[in-house]
Design brief:
CATH architecture: 2-Layer Sandwich
Shape: globular
Length: about 150
C-alpha cells in the first residue's frame, strides 16, 4: 500500500498532467490550423486514474474540456500505475505512448485507437511549439552557409 505522501504526489501529478494537456491543446488549437482540423470532428472522452484520483478529458465539436471525477462511459481509460514516470515520458516524447504500455507504467481500457490519437494530438502540440521556437530563434541564430571544407 502506498503512503499518504505518495498518494498525494500521484494525485497532484495526475491532475497537473491532465490539466496541462488540456491547457496546451487549448492554446495550440487556437493558433495552429493542423490541430484545429485534427480535433474538429473528433469526439472522445478519456478518463485518467491514479489511485483514487480521477479526471476526464473530453474532445467535442472542436473543443476540449477537463473535469474532476469519474465519467459514466469513457471511450478510453488510462490508469497511471506510476504517474511520475508517465509524466516524464510524455514530456520527453509524447508520440511514444506505446512505450508506457510495454513498460507497465499504465493500464488501459478501450479501443487503442483513442490512445494513439491522444499521442498524435500531443505530438501536434509539441510540433507547434518546436516550430514557434525555431521562428523565434532564427533571427538570433541564423543558419550559416557552409562553403566547403
Amino acid at each position: 500500500m502506498k503512503s499518504i505522501g505518495i498518494r498525494i504526489v500521484d494525485a497532484v501529478v495526475l491532475h497537473l498532467s491532465v490539466i496541462g494537456s488540456w491547457a496546451i491543446i487549448e492554446i495550440v488549437r487556437r493558433r495552429y490550423g493542423r490541430l484545429q482540423r485534427a480535433i474538429q470532428s473528433f469526439e472522445a472522452t478519456y478518463q485518467f486514474t491514479a489511485g483514487s484520483a480521477v479526471r476526464s478529458l473530453t474532445f467535442s465539436k472542436g473543443h476540449v474540456e477537463t473535469k474532476y471525477g469519474p465519467v459514466t462511459s469513457p471511450d478510453y481509460e488510462l490508469i497511471l500505475l506510476d504517474p511520475l514516470a508517465v509524466a516524464r515520458q510524455i514530456a520527453i516524447n509524447p508520440n511514444d505512448i506505446f512505450k508506457l504500455m510495454v513498460e507497465n507504467k499504465i493500464e488501459q481500457r478501450g479501443n487503442n485507437y483513442f490512445l494513439f490519437r491522444y499521442g498524435y494530438l500531443l505530438g501536434l502540440s509539441r510540433r507547434y511549439f518546436e516550430d514557434l521556437l525555431t521562428a523565434i530563434t532564427a533571427p538570433i541564430f541564423p543558419k550559416r552557409k557552409h562553403n566547403g571544407p
